Amino acid sequence: MTHGSRLRGWVVAFAVGVLVVGLGGFLVVQGLDKADKWASVFGVFVGLSGVALSVAGGLRARQRADGQSVTGSTIGGGVGGVAGDPYADPGCRAAPVSRVALPGGAVLAVVD
Fold it and tell me: How far is the C-alpha of 99 from the C-alpha of 111, rounded, in Å?
């Protein structure tokens, strides 16, 4: 973690703290009935911003799909993804794998 990102984290934490304390003070001054109404309004905006961030994150993840793919091939049976390299990683508990070279330099790993 760099010094700049650590400083940014502290600044954001401080700003959020000031915002929460200020909002709490505002609601105390308003009284119980008005504070309840204000809290409902704030809750709506927090909920909507959460939905918007969730949709944006989903769209961003879809754009960055770095998954495995095989094109121009016919595969019989099922295909499973292989995490790690069972030949290089002694901690990998994968079944024996046969490697098949495909056109274009791609390699298909078939679990035996």
Answer: 9
Q: Do residues 84 and 37 share a domain?
A: no
DSSP state of 41: H
Q: Name the DSSP letter for residue 104.
A: T
Looking up tokens 């595969």 gives: 75
Gap between the Cα atoms of 20 and 40, Å rounded: 16
Q: What is the pLDDT of residues 50-97, one digit of tens each?
A: 999 999 998 887 776 555 566 666 666 555 655 555 555 555 555 555
User: How many separate domains does the chain show?
Assistant: 2
Do 81 and 106 sit in the same domain of this protein?
yes
pTM, two decimal places: 0.46
Residue 25 makes CB contacts below 8 A (sequence gap 6+) with none
Residues 26 and 42 in one domain: yes
80 and 53 in a common domain: no
Rounded CA separation 22/16 (Å): 10
